[in-house]
Amino acid sequence: MKKIKKFFPSRSQKAGLSPGTLVHFGERKEESSRLSIIKFSPKKLDEKEITIDSLPEIFPGEEEVLWLNLDGLHEVKIVERIGKEFSLHHLVLEDVLTTDQRPKIEDFGEYIFMVLPMFYFSNDKSTIVSEQISLVLGKNFIISFQEQQGDVFSELRNRLRTGKGILRKKGADYLFYSILDSIVDGYFVILEKISEDIEAIDEMLLENQGSDLLQEIHRVKRELIFLRRSVWPLREIITKLERRETSLISESTLIYLRDVYDHAIQIIEAVETSRDLISGIMDIYLSTVSNRMNEVMKVLTIIATIFIPLTFVAGIYGMNFINMPELEWTWGYPVIILVMLIIAGGMVVFFRRKKWI
Fold first, then answer.
1. What's the count of helices (H) and strands (E) in the chain, helices before strands?
2. d(CA 183, CA 118)
3. Same domain, yes or no, for 179 and 268?
4. Do 274 and 131 share a structural domain?
5. Is 224 found in the same domain as 98?
């Protein structure tokens, strides 16, 4: 698995621009932007794709709730038009278009603006997709801005279509909680996959299959760092959301938000636990590599030590002196070979008694 988003994207293209300047900052992930709505009440639901010109016609009635979703942020005019129709601050629109925002929440009185990361798997289940999602909660509407099509809301949309549960009987604040809960639950899916990867790496370490082991350890460690950086502010966001005195969120919905807060704490603890595990595996891996290297050096040192006296003997009889009686002795060669074998054997016996080999 690999990340789509960089750790620290460059902001050089925004340098010198005035605050609130609407420039898309991030990777273009869609060919064209796509606007869709789900407008519902307890008795009916309307779901369709719309154009930018039909925005004035989609505002919900008194007992209706509107969920407007935009996939693809590179068409700045669409974001600007949505901001105009729903009276969103230009700094909110700037944050929507800047796709490396730190998770945050801001209360503008008439609406609440939230930015947080969303994680899910690609269609082939091999890649973790990470993208920024921006949410605007109004009195009877929610606007979600996504970088591309694909998200964790399929089950939520099915609940709206079928009318199961209390989702269609509640207001926009409960839908806002449900969206937030779906995003947080998506973190658990990613963490489960990372836990499986850590177990696989642990098994590879025990089986000494270390050709790609270091690369896998670094990949998982990088994913956990990225996940921690994205998830850690989530606790602060939900805490602020709980403590805000706003008419946009009812007291009954605050109870559900506390449950999301508990899930956020569990995710943070799971991330920290996984980081400790992968750090421990890294330490074990480095110790294993070091021990293996020590064993190799030990064997080479023993071999070199055995050959030192043998080289000394061979060196003496390799000198070209005339007065060396052993050179003309009939049994000189076999005797020297025997002496060298005795020296080598004696050293091996000595090393074994010392338990060096």
1. 8, 7
2. 6
3. yes
4. yes
5. yes
Q: What is the mean pLDDT of the chain?
A: 85
Quick: pLDDT tens for 70-83: 999 888 999 999 99
| Residue 189 within any structural domain of the chain | yes
pLDDT digit string (tens) for 172-231?
Answer: 999 999 999 999 999 998 899 899 989 888 888 877 656 678 888 888 888 888 888 888
Q: Which residue(s) pair with 355 in the sheet?
A: none
Between CA 149 and CA 151 the distance in angstroms is 7
Categorize the per-residue pLDDT at 14 as very low, low, confident or very high, splitting at 50, 70 and 90. low
CATH number assigned to the domain comprising residue 136:
3.30.460.20
The amino acid sitting at 30 is E
Judge whether 302 lies within some domain: no
The beta-strand segments (E) located in 203-308 are none
The tokens 């070091």 sit on which residue?
Answer: 290
On whether both 16 and 88 belong to a single domain, the answer is: yes
How far from chain centre, in Å, is Cα 184? 14
Is the domain of 264 the same as that of 330?
Answer: no
Is residue 141 located within the same domain as residue 251? Answer: yes
Instruction: Decide if 300 is inside a domain.
Output: no
Say yes or no: 346 and 233 in one domain.
no
What's 165's DSSP letter? T
φ, ψ (nearest 5 deg) of residue 5: -90, 145
The stretch 300-304 carries a mean pLDDT of 90
Q: Are 231 and 268 in contact (CB under 8 A)?
A: yes
Distance CA(203)–CA(110), nearest Å, equals: 54
What sign does the dihedral 79-84-88-92 (CA atoms) show?
A: positive
Residue 126 CB neighbour total at 10 angstroms: 9
Q: Is residue 298 part of a domain?
A: no
How much of the chain, in percent, has pLDDT values that exceed 70? 91
Predicted TM-score of the model (pTM): 0.78
In eight-state DSSP terms, residue 126 is: S
Q: Please state, in angstroms and rounded to a whole number, the distance separating the CA atoms of residues 286 and 291.
A: 9
Residue 327 DSSP one-character state: G
Is the predicted pLDDT of residue 112 greater than 90, yes or no?
A: yes
How many domains does the chain fold into? 2
What is the residue range of 346's domain?
A: 317-353
